[in-house]
TrEMBL record:
It comes from the Archaea. Transmembrane segments: none annotated. A motif (Histidine triad motif) lies at residues 96-100. This is HIT family protein. GO terms for molecular function: catalytic activity. The active site is at residue 98. Residues 4-111 form the HIT domain. Coiled coil: none annotated. GO terms for biological process: nucleotide metabolic process.
Length: 112
């Protein structure tokens, strides 16, 4: 059974897509922790970071690198938390590698 993110990548489930290329995709989180909360995925399904081939990891990083300032600018954020939950015990709910870009604002009260 493909993950929900594979289904989004295949266009079978709708999402608010903010970026897409041959290898990667970014869309807004369905349950955002802040305005602009974005998820970046490899389109192919890899459960954990160590499963991602180096060339795909490189593409994924390039997309993250490009999107972090764009997401911050889009919601006028002061900073962002950029994070992977890697494995169930770390809070990873969807077993398809994804990077959270979580916009942060002065005084939003947290270091995570
Ligand atoms: P995790 O806890 O696995 O690191 O994060 C999974 C994230 O995926 C959560 O923030 C959750 O809100 C988001 N999410 C789960 N299902 C969907 C979905 O169907 N569509 C979108 N856009 N986000 C989802």
């Amino acid at each position: 059974m493909p993950t929900i993110f594979s289904q989004i990548a295949a266009g079978e489930i709708p999402a608010r897509v903010v970026y897409e290329d041959e290898t990667t995709m970014a869309f807004l989180d369905a349950t955002p922790l802040a305005p602009g909360h974005t998820l970046v995925i490899p389109k192919d399904e890899y459960p954990r970071l160590n499963d991602v081939p180096a060339d795909v990891a490189s593409e994924l990083y390039a997309t993250i690198h490009q999107l972090v300032p764009a997401v911050e600018a889009a919601v006028d954020a002061d900073a962002s938390t950029v994070a992977f939950n890697n494995g169930e015990a770390a809070g990873q709910e969807v077993p398809h590698v994804h990077c959270h870009i979580l916009p942060r604002f002065e005084g939003d009260g947290g270091s995570n």
